[in-house]
Design brief:
Elements lengths: L4 E9 L6 H9 L6 E2 L12 E2 L13 H5 L3 H17 L11 E6 L5 H14 L8 H5 L3 H10 L5 E2 L7 H14 L5 E8 L4 H9 L28 E9 H6 L6 E10 L12 H13 L9 E3 L6 H15 L7 E3 L2 H4 L6 H15 L1 E2 L22 E2 L4 E8 L3 E8 L3
Parallel strand pairs: 4-5, 4-6, 9-10, 9-13
Antiparallel strand pairs: 1-7, 1-8, 2-3, 6-7, 8-14, 11-12, 13-14
Helix pairs in contact: 3-6, 7-13, 10-11
Length: 411
């Protein structure tokens, strides 16, 4: 008998707010966190906009010495994890630390550390490279630093599946608790890649929007969509075995019902054109939860605002849900906060939990006219108040990685 897993804590650092309430209220108010890039001079860059985190001070979450030994993506992860753990009310002094783990992924790690030290290498020689370059740069340090900061001695993993990282991390944490490897997992994603090489790389790939209007740059499912807007931040949640949560009187936000993961085995950047891989991930999550497509009320789409993703994800939803596809509410959080890459699945999982808790589905901002083949209900215009019993969050990553996680009302 697999163990039931519930959500007991939430934490978020995002382009529209550095805590869950600010973030969620921003989504409800159609607040767009996209603007001109300020981290570097974009004069020579085709892409001028990103969704940057504002007013973040790592010293609010950790001591200055610890902060100096972390790159921004790790700082975001620790900050969101601190919020989630505090929200959960877990008292580590009363817990067996070997039963509490972390699955906090980052798709890229620190490109900034790489940029800085590559410059030093070329200008001053190999002996001047920072001795901490490697531990600052590598992507597993989000999970590692979360474990170190909060004394979590259980299973500690870093899933790296590009833009599916956050969802896979939460899914693997869910499995770890179901299977008995842990009682509590701190899970999600973190990313901070708005830097010259990051923006230049994605621009050369023609993945980013070159629109210079912040309100129109990220427009998932729209006929004029022309690429995604790079975002940054972290979304981290506390997942807990049900009996463990009940025993300590925890507040329960929602229950994780099912998880599906597949590979398109098709192309390094394009999703499978018939949507079959993403559809199977959704179907597996629904089956894992013991539910049927008719039980699904809402899908938080991967919805990147690229031509291929939005069209093929629409096909995938139709394949997975059949007749229910036209009845389900769909939206894209990326319309307001851009694409947080490895952190996207973490913050979008939080959106699903809040949608269930509040009975509200936020709008897909920037969507004016649906593009060809995008003919489902993408919550255009304004958000909608409605009961949400069951939600799916989708994440699709370069390499053909598909991940879907199903969240439902706790009963």
């Amino acid at each position: 008998m697999s163990r039931r897993v519930v959500v007991t804590g939430l934490g978020a650092i995002t382009p529209i707010g550095n805590d869950v309430d600010s973030f969620w209220n921003g989504l409800k108010e159609n607040q767009v966190g996209i603007g001109p890039i300020t981290y570097f001079d974009t004069a020579d860059y085709k892409v001028k906009l990103a969704a940057q985190v504002k007013d973040f001070n790592p010293k609010d979450y950790m001591d200055p010495k610890a902060a100096r030994r972390m790159e921004l993506f790790s700082q975001y992860a620790v900050a969101a994890a601190k919020q989630a753990l505090e929200d959960s009310g877990i008292d580590m002094s009363k817990e067996n630390p070997y039963r509490i783990g972390a699955a906090v992924g980052s798709g890229i790690g620190s490109l900034q550390a790489f940029e800085r030290d590559h410059k030093k290498l070329l200008e001053k020689g190999p002996s001047r490279v920072n001795p901490l370059l490697v531990p600052l740069m590598i992507s597993n340090m989000a999970a590692g630093n979360v474990g170190i900061q909060f004394g979590l001695k259980g299973k500690n993993i870093n899933v790296v599946t590009a833009c599916a990282t956050g969802t896979h991390s939460i899914g693997e944490a869910f499995r770890s608790i179901q299977y008995g490897e842990a009682d509590v997992m701190v899970a999600g994603g973190a990313e901070a890649s708005i830097c010259p090489i990051g923006v230049a790389g994605f621009t050369s790939l023609t993945a980013l929007s070159s629109c210079e209007d912040p309100m129109q740059a990220s427009r998932p499912f729209d006929e004029n969509r022309d690429g995604f807007v790079m975002g940054e931040g972290s979304g981290v949640v506390v997942l807990e075995e049900l009996e463990h949560a009940l025993a300590r009187g925890a507040k329960i936000y929602a229950e994780v019902g099912g998880y599906g993961a597949t590979c398109d085995a098709y192309h390094i950047t394009s999703p499978a054109e018939d949507g079959s891989g993403a559809a199977m991930a959704m179907s597996n999550a629904i089956k894992d939860a013991g539910l049927t497509p008719s039980d699904i009320d809402y899908i938080n789409a991967h919805g990147t605002s690229t031509h291929h993703n939005d069209l093929f994800e629409t096909k995938a939803i139709k394949l997975a849900l059949g007749d229910q596809a036209s009845k389900v509410k769909i939206n894209s959080t990326k319309s307001m906060i851009g694409h947080l890459l490895g952190a996207a699945g973490g913050v979008e999982f939080i959106v699903c939990v809040k949608s269930i808790q509040d009975g509200f589905i936020h709008a897909t901002a920037g969507l004016k006219q649906e593009g060809e083949g995008c003919d489902l209900d993408y919550t255009k215009g304004q958000g909608v108040s409605m009961e949400v019993n069951c939600a799916i969050s989708n994440s699709l990553g370069f390499g053909g990685h598909n991940a879907s996680i199903l969240v439902k009302k706790y009963r």
